[in-house]
Amino acid sequence: MGVTADGLWGPGTEAAYQAYYDEGALLAVDGDFGPATIRATQRATGTTVDGQWGPASIRALQRHLNTWSDAGLAVDGLMGPVAVKALQRHLNTMVNAGLALDGIWGYATIAALQRALNRARF
Fold first, then answer.
1. CB atoms within 10 A of CB 64
2. Domain assignment present for 17
């Protein structure tokens, strides 16, 4: 759907957004790290999109955080508290998530990740 880029949120933009949403391109912001969120994270980090979260996906996330946030993470495929804190810091920068840097992979961090992916700000 072609939309004229005029900087205004008009009927064409609304229709394009609704079509995008209806296709399931946007994630539910539910704090659940399920297959849809995993696939979106894999797309954003440039790894194989298969909906499976494992060491290869985690290494891609670690490389992404090192590139975009200068996180200085070891690219080891382990999602420990240091990697989660780096993700939280990145999300606070990208979408003003307001996350505590506690290293906990829970609802707040996952919901912030989903918001960032929906806004293409990851």
1. 21
2. no
